[in-house]
Structures are given as structure tokens and as C-alpha cells.
TrEMBL record:
<dbReference type="Pfam" id="PF00248">
    <property type="entry name" value="Aldo_ket_red"/>
</dbReference>
<feature type="binding site">
    <location>
        <position position="109"/>
    </location>
    <ligand>
        <name>substrate</name>
    </ligand>
</feature>
<feature type="active site" description="Proton donor">
    <location>
        <position position="49"/>
    </location>
</feature>
<dbReference type="InterPro" id="IPR023210">
    <property type="entry name" value="NADP_OxRdtase_dom"/>
</dbReference>
<dbReference type="InterPro" id="IPR044498">
    <property type="entry name" value="AKR4C"/>
</dbReference>
<feature type="site" description="Lowers pKa of active site Tyr">
    <location>
        <position position="78"/>
    </location>
</feature>
<keyword id="KW-0521">NADP</keyword>
<dbReference type="InterPro" id="IPR018170">
    <property type="entry name" value="Aldo/ket_reductase_CS"/>
</dbReference>
<dbReference type="GO" id="GO:0016491">
    <property type="term" value="F:oxidoreductase activity"/>
</dbReference>
<keyword id="KW-0560">Oxidoreductase</keyword>
<dbReference type="InterPro" id="IPR036812">
    <property type="entry name" value="NAD(P)_OxRdtase_dom_sf"/>
</dbReference>
<comment type="similarity">
    <text>Belongs to the aldo/keto reductase family.</text>
</comment>
<feature type="domain" description="NADP-dependent oxidoreductase">
    <location>
        <begin position="16"/>
        <end position="280"/>
    </location>
</feature>
<protein>
    <recommendedName>
        <fullName>NADP-dependent oxidoreductase domain-containing protein</fullName>
    </recommendedName>
</protein>
<dbReference type="InterPro" id="IPR020471">
    <property type="entry name" value="AKR"/>
</dbReference>
Length: 311
């Protein structure tokens, strides 16, 4: 069975989940079915990915075929920035599209709020962020059982700290970019000290995305370790994250890659080799440039403000 990490909510999150961001319509349903068949039990979704209905349909087929039961799956979704004033309604929308009765984890997608009907993130689209109000509504979702755990995504140390100063229910997870090229050297020790689990998005560096200006899978440390451990570069990158105690969300729509991306539990990177990873010069790939606008109601006027200088 797939190893899990224990969360402060008491729930246990499967170490590997299928990422569905940028999975094309028509492909994502197939990827979900294939993934579950080869052993994935964790699917990472979001309203913003615009494919929850197709994911939900694929899950329904899997239930009907008797391949998996709802209670054996871990399903995550995320509150989009336009829905901060309608948290419960947004959660119910995701549950309806995913046809899953409840979510295992519901995350605040970004520490940003947009107008209800905003289609993009232009200067006129932002509204001030009221994280206190948003989080109180997230806590209600938790108390009602519609979300078994609640958490955040793309929150820095400072933004997490501020949330912890007023929350009743602590976030169980902070889902952020994390891979050997961006190891979250500032955020990770902080989350660890606060008992908040880190889930890594873009764990193999999202190499096909325009923002990925350096290919993680081609880093000399990665290719060297791939040769040494006789594993693929993707497996090395994923295993590095697992050994830090982070769950990972590799995305693929290819059957062979889906299968190999969960074959991570029959080898171990040595302490000595982990030290090599620690020497890699750090570079954030996903800079969130749509999430800050100068000269607007946006809470962040610069990329430094969005990430509190951690870039
Ligand atoms: P594809 O979906 O065509 O398989 P991330 O999860 O970091 O966002 O990275 C996803 C990207 O990495 C996608 O372009 C995906 O392509 C590709 N990818 C997924 N698994 C592997 C693998 N095992 N080896 C190389 N590339 C992979």
C-alpha cells in the first residue's frame, strides 16, 4: 500500500498524489483512471484547473468497475480567489463536480482575493484579502465534515504566521512549489516546527511549462544520482521530496510515467547524497506573476511582497 504522512488533523495523506493542473480535457479523466489502476489513491484538484467534472466522471467509473471505493481515496480541492466570500458554496461546487460527497482536504489556493465575477487577475480584479473571514469560513467547512482537513497553498512564513495568530483550527497542510531546485529552505523548517505538513507541487519541475526556465530533471546532481541509483531523474527528484517528509503531486498523462512516478519506496537516497542536494543553487520556478499588480487594490504590489522576499 501507498505510504502516508500523518497530519495535525489526525488524517493521513498518501505520500504521492496525482497532479491534475494543466492536464488537458479529454486526457485528465484517462490519467485519473490509469493512475488509480496502478495504485494512486490521492488526486489533487482545484476549481481553477477547470477539469473537476471530468475527474469526477472518471472516479465514478472506477467505483462502478469496483476498482476503488470513495473512502479509499484522498481527494483535495482548492478555494479559488473569486470565492473568498462564498467558501461553503464553492466547496459544495467542487464536491458536486468531483461527485465525492466530502473532500479529504480543502485548501485556500492563494493568499489573494478577487472580485466574484473576475475572469482574470487584472488591476481592477483584486479586492482586499480578509484572511480572517476566509479562514473562519474554512473552519466551518471542517466542522461540518464537508472537508475532513483544511489548509493553505502558496503561503509564505509570514502569511502562515499571521493565520496562526487568529485561527481556531490550524491548517493541516501548506501546498507549495518544492523540488531540488526550490527546496523551500526558509518555509520548510518553519512549517515543520509548527506541525504543518508540506505538500510539494511541481515536484519534478513542471518541465513543459513556460515558467520552467531551468529543467529540474537535467540538473547535474539529479542525472548523477539517477545513474548511481539506477532510477529515472523524475524518481530521484520525487524521492528527495519524500525523504524530506513531504507528499508529492507529480502530474502526467502518460501511463508509463504514472506507473514509474509511484515506484519510490524500494530505494533510499543516502545521507551523504542528500548533502549534495543541499548544495544546489536555489531558484523558484513559479513566481506567481498573475497574483500581484502594481497600482491597484491588490494586496501585493511587487513579486517580493507576494512571497515576502523569499524568491
Ligand atoms: P506528461 O504529462 O506529458 O507526462 P510537474 O508534476 O512537476 O508539474 O511536472 C509535470 C511535467 O513533467 C509534465 O510535463 C509531464 O509530462 C512531465 N513528466 C511527468 N512524469 C515524468 C517522468 N517520469 N519523466 C519525465 N517527465 C515527466
Amino acid at each position: 500500500a501507498m505510504p502516508r504522512f500523518k497530519l495535525n488533523s489526525g488524517a493521513s495523506i498518501p505520500a504521492v498524489g496525482l497532479g491534475t493542473w494543466q492536464s488537458e480535457p479529454g486526457l485528465v479523466g484517462k490519467a485519473v483512471k490509469e493512475a488509480v489502476k496502478v495504485g494512486y489513491r490521492h488526486i489533487d484538484c482545484a476549481k481553477a484547473y477547470k477539469n473537476e467534472k471530468e475527474v469526477g466522471d472518471a472516479l465514478q467509473e472506477l467505483y462502478k468497475e469496483g476498482i476503488v471505493k470513495r473512502e479509499d481515496l484522498w481527494i483535495t480541492s482548492k478555494l479559488w480567489c473569486t470565492d473568498h466570500n462564498d467558501v461553503e458554496e464553492a466547496l459544495k461546487g467542487s464536491i458536486e463536480r468531483l461527485q465525492c460527497e466530502y473532500l479529504d482536504l480543502y485548501l485556500v489556493h492563494w493568499p489573494c482575493a478577487l472580485k466574484k465575477d473576475a475572469e482574470g487577475t487584472g488591476p481592477e480584479d483584486f479586492v482586499p484579502l480578509n484572511i480572517k473571514g476566509t479562514w473562519a469560513a474554512m473552519e466551518k467547512c471542517y466542522e461540518s465534515g464537508l472537508a475532513k482537513s483544511i489548509g493553505i497553498s502558496n503561503f509564505t512564513v509570514e502569511k502562515t504566521k499571521s493565520l496562526l495568530s487568529h485561527c481556531k483550527v490550524r491548517p493541516a497542510v501548506n501546498q507549495v512549489e518544492c523540488h531540488p531546485l526550490w527546496q523551500q529552505k526558509k518555509l520548510w523548517p518553519y512549517l515543520k516546527s509548527e506541525g504543518i505538513h508540506l505538500t510539494a507541487y511541481s515536484p519534478i519541475g513542471s518541465s513543459n511549462s513556460p515558467f520552467a526556465d531551468i529543467n529540474v530533471l537535467e540538473l547535474p546532481t539529479i542525472t548523477k544520482m539517477a545513474e548511481k541509483y539506477k532510477r529515472s531523474p523524475a524518481q530521484i527528484a520525487l524521492r528527495w521530496n519524500i525523504q524530506q517528509g513531504h507528499s508529492v503531486l507529480p502530474k502526467s498523462t502518460h501511463a508509463d510515467r504514472l506507473a514509474s512516478n509511484i515506484e519510490l519506496f524500494d530505494f533510499e537516497i543516502s545521507e551523504e547524497d542528500l548533502d549534495e542536494f543541499a548544495k544546489i543553487e536555489q531558484h523558484r520556478l513559479l513566481r506567481g506573476d498573475e497574483m500581484w499588480v502594481n497600482d491597484s487594490t491588490s494586496p501585493y504590489k511587487t513579486v517580493e511582497e507576494l512571497w515576502d522576499g523569499d524568491i
